[in-house]
Specification:
2 copies of one chain form a homodimer. By secondary structure, chain A is an alpha/beta fold. Chain A has 2 domains: 274 residues, 3-Layer(aba) Sandwich (Aldehyde Dehydrogenase, Chain A, domain 1), CATH 3.40.605.10; 179 residues, Aldehyde Dehydrogenase, Chain A, domain 2 (3-Layer(aba) Sandwich), CATH 3.40.309. Chain A is built from 13 helices and 23 strands. In chain A, helix 5 links the parallel strand 8 and strand 9. In chain A, helix 3 runs parallel beside helix 4. The model of chain A has no long low-confidence stretch (mean pLDDT 97). Chains A and B meet through helix 1, helix 3, strand 5, strand 6 and helix 7 of A and helix 1, helix 3, strand 5, strand 6 and helix 7 of B.
């Protein structure tokens, strides 16, 4: 695939109107060709208008047409995977083999959403048939289905340049919902972004859809992103990235004359609680597994387990020794961008400045932007006094908390703000304590894991990648998993409709054969 | 029931800390005893803390206990209905008979939510069983259910002093979700509010629940409401009222350090489109029916049909004559509050000032706060030039739009902002035009009605009382109907859990016998 560096707005390519940028290979600190076009508010306006024009026809696509479109994207991602992984590796410093896996998972995700579309349950078709004889007054026929929210702006993350980027879960779920998508490409991987965007726009064309179903724009600084969030024809925003970036977009969207929903997935330290019997039985295994996971993707992962809490006692020293051994043995590795590297160094200094003891450090690397693994230890009492230690350090660093007793562990659990996940390591004898911690963790997280590590994650019906603030801006939704589609749907009730005017999902003879709720009971029958 | 006028925070009654207020009987312009306590931020804090203390135990109630609690409230509302209707009538000027019906519907609503709780589908239990043999890596067991969002602040409306007030749909759906509720009582009907609050707190006590499950506070001005929305232990807000009031709370909640969801139902003109064949066949019937509905509740209803659009042609004059006849024949009636009366007069003047022709006017009344019915007519061209004519006039006023042709009707449909509902009157020959209007209306409304009037509304599984901004602040939800509960729920995923630690809804043998999604298929079996 030839990269032109152009902005891809609908079916048209646009040359730069605000200069260009070059991608950086962070492992060699050198720039990479070609130059990528930067746009401004005119390009945002063009993309948003096209998306709006595309809305009616795309929202009205049959389930079969929409599912086939998503599968074309999946096929395109598969075909482009080697090239995409290579380019993404150049731009991120992440291993190409890992990125081929990420491309494969992204393709799988589009196929899964095609399946969700075919099943038709996302419509949440609900039917309350007429009750002409009801007293004291008759009930009219009421039918409800969910339709697309409107054009969606997607802001991808830097750290997973495929599965949380242009062809990631936000785009897949918004397209599955029937929403046209305008992606603001992340400037840290413009080439990988272009490859993904070309795959999607080719699928748009091959499926005979309105060109406005997908556009990708790019800009320097915050102007283009802000213009996108401000645009009156944009109906919702999906964002993955830092708390600062996410909140800036969130607050901006809420300040519009007509506020729009923003789902921003932002920050999480994913605390791990090792309960006494599990600690005694397998402290070493847990410490080793934790440290392995914290170093995946050079610690640049939303699900990185960043804090391990264990009550001091049998197994603690083995756990700690295993963590130290793995961190000490790991070399520094290239971080995604110079900015992320610098922030990592500053955050490690911030942890150090609280008085936390550094108990392990990976070897320094040769690259300019190589992040050195770091492991700190604090007492539970210290942690209770320093809530800033619960803030994320994006990169290969973690914190071991030596907890005095069970009551202190419970107090520490209560101190955490919203999280994407929390993990318990618990044996049978730990279950009473696990049951005590569970309501505390349910209230603070989107996912609780027992005896495993939260990464990598499933894309399935039950998966949740969400959680209370500041993990996300709306704990009622998820950005990963089949129910991610719900962010981009809204209900419409049809009252007293003749069958001929009803949408297909709600017709009497259920021509789509989908699950529907009739008088409160699920069924696939006519109604 | 003896009204004390106290603030009802948990199980305790609190005397005024910020003075008192007296209710006004708007029909006689006289005040009514007793004096009602006003509180301040200390009372808000007390109620929010109690709600937070109640959260864990209330969220963990079994389906049976929670359903029985809701049914106790229903029984209490039934028992209190005559007294409640009488007091509400005194405080609002609305007929007691109508308010008895409203009390009965409020009780029914609690019973319906009890049924929703028993069905257990609100948990949206979803199970992706382990796949230990899956390649390239095994899948762990993932289970998801929805739990309560947290303590909810409810702001009721002035116009339906029961069904959209203390014991209205917001409280019923939040309690059904497992959320403790703090109601800020509306100062226009403090006595009706106290009666409802006493019913709910008696049910809390009789059900053996934590007292913090329900509190009612009251304050003057905006301080108490703002303190409630600001309180760090409040997790969500439900509001019904004006666009000004709703947006003030919305923007405040979004400015918190940790923004919280706000569902505000605010404003709608519920446009009615009369298509040519229906107009020719039954213009008189439609005009008469429309005018009847616009006058219900003295036009003080969120679903009041406020604008009727019809293409000039056969039947138009009959439609217009029927509307005029009914409006001219109607006497002025007491409006809810002096403030609402004054705003109504100002809004009628605003319509007049646009050059709209007043074609009918009800007789003036004897009461000081009696609102006179008013009917205006404008051309479609005039309406296109004066978008302010699409803004709500809260009260017994409506606008007839004489549309030049079908293209102008389509253009007018596109001009509307978000609405709770839109209505089409259409005969078979009108179906092609109806089909053309439908996508325009779906995108702008939460409900489309054919050949009926939107009021009164059903509380059922398919009912939607929501819509795009400014009808509500989040078009993805509804404040009426069984799915109103979804505003107050959030998903939690349980990964790798032993059966003993799983919540009941997710256990292998499905002890609750509820519908669950297993590997993407609905079933009531074990998994």
């Amino acid at each position: 695939m030839t990269l032109t560096g152009n902005l891809l707005i609908g079916a048209t390519e646009y040359s730069p109107t605000r200069g260009t940028l070059l991608a950086l290979d962070p492992s060699t600190d050198t720039t990479i060709e070609p130059a990528f076009a930067l746009g401004g508010i005119e390009e945002v306006d063009r993309a948003a208008r096209l998306a709006d024009e595309a809305f009616d026809s795309y929202n009205a696509t049959t389930l079969a047409v929409r599912a086939a479109f998503l599968e074309r994207i999946a096929d395109g991602l598969d075909a482009a995977a080697p090239e995409l992984a290579q380019r993404a590796s150049l731009e991120t410093g992440l291993p190409a083999a890992q990125l081929e896996g990420e491309a494969a998972r992204a393709a799988t995700q589009f196929r899964q959403f095609a399946q969700v579309v075919r099943q038709g349950r996302f419509r949440q078709a609900t039917i309350d048939p007429a009750q002409p004889e009801r007293q004291p007054r008759a009930r009219m026929d009421h039918r409800m289905q969910k339709i697309a929210l409107g054009p969606i702006a997607v802001f991808g993350a830097s750290n997973f340049p495929i599965s949380y980027s242009v062809a990631g879960g936000d785009t897949a779920s918004a397209l599955a919902a029937g929403c046209p998508v305008v992606v603001k490409a992340h400037n840290a991987h413009p080439g990988a972004s272009e490859i993904q965007a070309r795959v999607i726009r080719e699928a748009v064309a091959a499926s005979g859809l309105h060109e406005g179903v997908f556009s990708m724009i790019r800009g320097e600084g915050t102007q283009v992103g802000e213009a996108l969030v401000d645009h009156p024809l944009i109906s919702g925003v999906a964002f993955t990235g830092s708390e600062g970036g996410g909140m800036a977009l969130y607050r901006r969207a809420q300040s519009r004359p007509d506020p729009i929903p923003v789902f921003a997935e932002m920050t999480s330290v994913n605390p791990t609680f090792v309960l006494p019997d599990a600690l005694a039985a397998r402290g070493h295994v847990i410490g080793d597994g934790f440290a392995e996971r914290m170093l995946v993707n050079v610690g640049q992962a939303c699900l990185k387990p960043a804090i391990l809490l264990a009550v001091d006692g049998p197994g603690f020293d083995a756990l700690k020794a295993a963590m130290i051994a793995r961190v000490d043995a790991m070399h520094a590795r290239t971080m995604l961008t110079p900015g992320i590297f610098q922030a990592y160094r500053q955050n490690v200094e911030r942890v150090r400045a609280t008085g936390a003891a550094q108990i392990a450090e990976g070897a320094s690397g040769e690259g300019r932007w190589d992040g050195r693994p770091a492991l700190f230890e604090v007492s539970g009492a210290h942690m209770l006094e320093e809530p800033s230690l619960s803030e994320e350090v994006f990169g290969p660093s973690a914190l071991l908390v030596r907890v005095a007793d069970v009551e202190q562990l419970v107090a520490l659990a209560r101190q955490f703000r919203g999280q994407l996940s929390a993990t318990l390591h618990a044996d049978a004898a730990d279950h009473p304590l696990a049951a005590r911690l569970l309501p505390i963790l349910e209230r603070r997280t989107g996912r609780v894991v027992i005896n495993a590590f939260a990464h990598p994650q499933e894309v399935s019906y039950a998966s949740i990648h969400g959680g209370p603030f500041p993990a996300t801006t709306d704990s009622r939704f998820t950005s990963v998993g089949m129910s991610a589609i719900e962010r981009f749907l809204r209900p419409v009730c049809y009252q007293g409709f003749p069958d001929a005017l009803l949408p297909e999902a709600l017709r009497h003879d259920n021509p789509l054969g989908i699950w529907r709720l009739t008088d409160g009971e699920p069924a696939r029958t006519q109604a």
